[in-house]
Automatic annotation (TrEMBL):
Keyword Oxidoreductase (UniProt): yes
Stretch forming the signal peptide: none
Domain of life of the source: Archaea
Lineage: Archaea, Methanobacteriati, Methanobacteriota, Stenosarchaea group, Halobacteria
Protein's name according to its UniProt entry: Heme-degrading monooxygenase HmoA
UniProt-recorded Gene Ontology molecular function terms: monooxygenase activity
Keyword terms: Monooxygenase, Oxidoreductase
Pfam families (UniProt xref): Monooxy_af470-like
Length: 106
């Protein structure tokens, strides 16, 4: 499994952002190998972390080729003050206390 952590400092969102953001999320969900996402908001700042879960690097690369996703990456300065992406391969995952389903969110 691969995780993509998208860390962002939001700027100003307009209608065009929301339309493109919705299209990018739909493209992710339509990509074979997309497993879900989780979002966290930092209590002391406006920073946001979004972690996307992917079954394989091939799935992630397939999503990366999506035209809406590429457009959003080109236009990031219109809507974010800063961003950072980290791609991580999960070697092992374990624990308890989050219910019976250890899989990422759908």
């Amino acid at each position: 499994m691969f995780l993509v952590t998208f860390r962002l400092d939001p700027g100003t969102y307009d209608a065009e952002f929301h339309e493109l953001n919705d299209a990018v999320q739909a493209a992710a969900e339509d990509t074979d190998g997309y497993l879900g996402k989780r979002t966290w908001h930092a209590p002391e700042s406006e920073e946001v972390l979004v972690v996307y879960y992917w079954a394989s690097l091939d799935a992630l690369e397939s999503f990366g080729a999506d035209a809406d996703h590429r457009e959003a990456k080109r236009r990031w300065t219109e809507w974010y003050d800063a961003y950072e992406v980290t791609v991580t391969e999960v070697v092992e995952s374990y624990g308890s206390g989050f219910g019976d389903d250890p899989d990422p969110p759908a």
